[in-house]
């Protein structure tokens, strides 16, 4: 028994295109998790389309009951199942593959995978039966059937196992000395994501297990405010996992396409660590207009007196494009401010996806998140469509598009199949990225006009005559959102078709090297140091960063001005 | 060596930070301080700071308090749901309750006067979204949230529920009237 396990653990192959070493069991696990991820993205994306078309008031596709059910299913499939399956694949890749070691306890990893699959399917079945339309937040005392909570608990346990397999694999690499010195930056970033994931899942357990027991009648009462506090310790930090994971993916893509390394290891690593230290344990920015929470608590916990987690993201926002600029300059694209950027491979979906993700996450998602997280400004937007507008920029344009970009690169490496429909693939990140940026902007536009989120009919047709007239612009925003939804869904569907199609029908590569180089040679010390090391002066990135900063500051103060115009409240 | 491999320099933490990074980190740090400062600053000079006075209550108690308020100050009944329109004295207390799927009662206020609002839910969580003033407050059962509101313009305002509260969520709408 021991012998066969040892033998199994010795199945390694070297990828002819990238030179990376793959441990057989790890490779299979990465494939399984990535495929499951794409399946749930597809399912969730279809639900998203239905939701978007229903909120377009002139179309109003679904009935109320179906709308709330489908919206619940949408949130869970995309935010939880797609993201976390993909992140587990990223964790295994960043440990076993990047460190060139065997994966720890593949059987446990498979057990975790099975739990996640069972949980995710069970959850969909329960929700689609129709009496668990409680939204992913399932705010007590609204109650779902026990199986709803149980399915999420199973999924979370599976994901937790995945995190521990990742940590185990880091230990294996250390013991087997498969690398020297410190962890690669990308692995380090993934590790911060995994650490945050453990915290997240523990918070999830603290809230979901009692809620499950309450739903079966063992626990008497769930305090609604305590539920919100702990649920968001789970819900907010899970977003920090997504950020840490997609920032790692950005660095990985910069390395893959440009051979880039961080400007300074110290800065980038410290910024990752700050995600762990300041992940807003109390998740206060979801409770800014709740009763029973003091202003001091709100102000301190949203900012930690200096907005440190935000600072970390802004640092990555400079160092990721900065590392690309430095690599490009070192390789000779030194002219002017932006030659390095113009010469980037804009037709390669791995690059365009990554870059749109970076810009969209920063400009649309980041700025709006910080602005609405200011204690008083939150009064203007809490629970309006502004909120989903904001997070479609962070978790869809940001994380999802980054993961898609990486997938284009991973498929030939892992499955040894060529990507099909290359022409469509060129355009896919633009379709999805721009469509989704539209979704995000128009939802925010509607939210600014006061349109509520998770709401079936802002025309109030069924109230027997008590209505509210939203400005015509609100209806226009919802229509524009509906159109953007269609563009984004075409982009999302294109992704699923290309990826699934490539897995099934892509030209088999076997041990053959592809015609195109698949990983850039790392930029060498000599190249970086040529010209007196001028590559590290990154004027183009600095200009972009300044544009970002000015937009941020302007938008921030405009919102204080809006706030000053409403009723007095104290 | 790229970001996919261990750092080139084993003692990477001793490497100097690049100038552009330092510049950006300093700027971002100062900006973080500015944003941190804005919130307490607004508590001092701003007029929109949601009060946090909160009491534990029960649905029965809160309903009783609201009923007493309605009995005392109702001026007429109105609208498709024939709700009482309640006009408390300027500066007085206002009770409003959220329940599946209704806000009760209708409240009539005077422009420019300040009222002490008491808000709670009789069942699930709800969202008090005052439109078009665009003030949005979470309403949580068993907690009575007390804060002051000062209307700045006359007109008919809607209170729309913006926390999902089940299948009738989109039916949950109430009114606040502001008169000169
Ligand atoms: C494929 C394209 C997608 C479309 C067309 C879409 C569209 C929408 C729309 C219109 C809403 C409804 C807002 C409301 O009425 O409150 C929504 C909610 C949401 N979406 Fe998406 N979305 C898409 C993809 C995604 C992805 C990839 C994620 C996450 C990774 C995501 C996460 C969410 C979440 C968490 C909600 C909130 C659900 C809730 O309120 O409980 N969406 N989406
Ligand atoms: Cu409600
Ligand atoms: Cu509601």
Topology readout:
The complex is a heterodimer of chains A (570) and B (180).
Chain A: H1 2-8, E1 12-14, E2 21-23, H2 24-55, H3 64-99, H4 106-128, H5 146-176, H6 185-215, H7 224-258, H8 265-277, H9 295-303, H10 308-330, H11 339-342, H12 349-372, H13 378-381, H14 386-415, H15 422-448, H16 472-505, H17 525-533, H18 539-565, E3 568-569
Antiparallel strand pairs in A: 1-2
Helix pairs in contact in A: 2-3, 2-4, 2-16, 3-4, 3-5, 3-6, 4-5, 5-6, 6-7, 6-8, 7-10, 7-12, 7-14, 8-10, 10-12, 10-17, 10-18, 12-14, 12-15, 12-18, 14-15, 14-16, 15-16
Chain B: H1 19-45, E1 53-56, H2 59-73, E2 74-78, E3 83-86, E4 93-99, E5 102-104, E6 106-110, E7 115-121, E8 126-131, E9 135-139, E10 143-150, E11 155-161, E12 173-179
Parallel strand pairs in B: 3-6, 4-7, 6-12
Antiparallel strand pairs in B: 1-10, 2-3, 4-5, 7-10, 8-9, 8-11, 11-12
Question: What is the mean pLDDT of chain B?
Answer: 95
Q: Could you say what the CATH architecture of the domain at 18-181 in chain A is?
A: Up-down Bundle
Shape of chain B: elongated
Shape of chain A: globular
Specify the biggest β-sheet of chain A. Answer: 2 strands, antiparallel
- Helix percent band of chain A: over 70%
Largest interface: A-B, 110 and 90 residues
End-to-end CA span of chain B: 72 Å
Short structural description:
Chain A has 570 residues and is mainly α.
Key traits:
heterodimer; A: 570 residues; mainly alpha; Four Helix Bundle (Hemerythrin (Met), subunit A); two-stranded antiparallel sheet; 18 helices; 70% helix; 1% strand; B: 180 residues; alpha+beta; Immunoglobulin-like; seven-stranded mixed sheet; five-stranded mixed sheet; 12 strands; 23% helix; elongated; binds protoporphyrin IX containing FE; binds copper (II) ion
């Amino acid at each position: 028994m021991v012998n066969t396990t040892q033998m199994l653990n010795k199945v390694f192959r070297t990828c002819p295109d990238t030179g990376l070493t793959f441990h057989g069991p790890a490779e299979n696990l990465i494939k399984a998790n990535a495929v499951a991820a794409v399946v749930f993205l597809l399912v969730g994306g279809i639900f998203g389309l239905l939701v978007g078309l229903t909120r377009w008031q002139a179309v109003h596709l679904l009935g109320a009951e179906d709308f709330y059910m489908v919206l619940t299913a949408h949130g869970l499939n995309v935010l939880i199942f797609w993201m976390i399956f993909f992140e587990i694949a990223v964790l295994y890749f960043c440990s076993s593959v990047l460190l060139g070691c065997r994966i720890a306890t593949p059987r446990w990893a498979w057990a975790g995978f099975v739990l996640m699959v069972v949980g995710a399917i069970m959850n969909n079945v329960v929700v689609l039966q129709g009496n668990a339309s409680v939204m992913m937040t399932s705010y007590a005392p609204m109650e779902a059937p026990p199986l709803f909570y149980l399915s999420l608990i199973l999924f979370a346990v599976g994901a937790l196992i995945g995190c521990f397999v990742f940590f185990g694999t880091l230990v294996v690499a250390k013991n087997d000395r498969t690398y020297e010195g410190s962890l690669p930056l990308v692995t380090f970033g993934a590790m911060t994501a995994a650490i945050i994931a453990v915290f997240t899942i523990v918070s999830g357990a603290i809230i979901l297990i009692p809620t499950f027991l309450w739903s079966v009648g063992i626990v008497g009462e769930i305090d609604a405010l305590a539920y919100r506090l702990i649920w968001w310790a789970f819900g907010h930090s899970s977003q920090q996992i997504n950020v840490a994971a997609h920032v790692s993916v950005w660095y990985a893509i910069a390395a893959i396409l440009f051979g880039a390394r961080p400007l300074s290891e110290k800065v980038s690593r410290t910024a990752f660590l700050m995600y762990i230290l300041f992940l807003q344990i109390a998740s206060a920015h979801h409770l800014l207009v709740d009763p029973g929470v003091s202003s001091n608590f709100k102000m301190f916990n949203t900012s930690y007196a200096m907005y440190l987690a935000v600072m970390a993201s802004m640092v990555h926002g400079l160092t990721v494009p900065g590392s690309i600029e430095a690599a490009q300059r070192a390789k000779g694209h030194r002219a002017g401010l932006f030659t390095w950027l113009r010469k980037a491979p804009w037709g390669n979906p791995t690059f365009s996806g990554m870059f749109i993700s970076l810009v969209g996450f920063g400009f649309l998602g980041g700025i709006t998140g910080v602005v609405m997280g200011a204690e008083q400004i939150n009064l203007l937007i809490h629970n309006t469509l502004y909120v989903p507008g904001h997070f479609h920029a962070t978790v869809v344009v940001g994380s999802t598009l980054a993961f898609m970009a990486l997938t284009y690169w991973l498929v030939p490496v892992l499955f040894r199949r060529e990507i099909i429909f290359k022409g469509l693939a060129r355009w896919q990140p633009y379709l999805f990225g721009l469509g989704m940026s539209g979704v995000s902007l128009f939802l925010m536009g509607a939210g600014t006009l006061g349109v509520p989120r998770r709401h079936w009919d802002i025309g109030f047709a069924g109230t027997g005559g008590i209505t509210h007239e939203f400005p015509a612009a609100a209806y226009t925003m919802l229509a524009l959102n509906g159109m953007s939804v269609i563009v984004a869904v075409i982009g999302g569907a294109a992704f699923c078709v290309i990826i699934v199609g490539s897995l099934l029908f892509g030209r088999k590569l076997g041990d053959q090297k592809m015609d195109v180089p698949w990983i850039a040679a790392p930029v060498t010390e000599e190249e970086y140091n040529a010209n007196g090391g001028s590559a590290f002066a990154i004027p183009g990135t600095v200009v972009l960063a300044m544009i970002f900063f000015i937009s941020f500051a302007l938008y921030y103060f405009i919102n204080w001005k809006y706030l000053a115009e409403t009723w007095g409240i104290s | 060596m790229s970001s996919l491999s261990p750092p080139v320099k084993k003692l990477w933490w001793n490497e100097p930070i690049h100038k552009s990074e330092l510049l950006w980190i300093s700027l971002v740090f100062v900006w973080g301080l500015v944003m941190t400062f804005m919130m307490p600053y607004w508590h001092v000079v701003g007029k929109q700071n949601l009060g946090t006075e909160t009491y534990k209550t029960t649905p029965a108690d809160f309903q009783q308090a609201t009923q007493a308020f309605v009995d005392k100050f109702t001026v007429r009944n109105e609208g498709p749901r024939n709700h009482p329109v309640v006009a408390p004295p300027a500066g007085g207390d206002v009770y409003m309750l959220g329940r599946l799927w209704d806000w009760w009662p209708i409240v009539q206020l005077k422009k420019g006067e300040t009222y002490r609002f008491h808000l709670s839910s009789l069942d699930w969580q709800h969202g008090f979204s005052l439109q078009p003033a665009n003030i949005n407050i979470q309403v949580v059962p068993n907690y009575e949230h007390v804060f002051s509101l000062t209307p700045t313009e006359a007109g008919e305002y809607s209170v729309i529920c913006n926390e999902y509260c089940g299948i009738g969520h989109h039916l949950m709408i109430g009114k606040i009237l502001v008169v000169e």
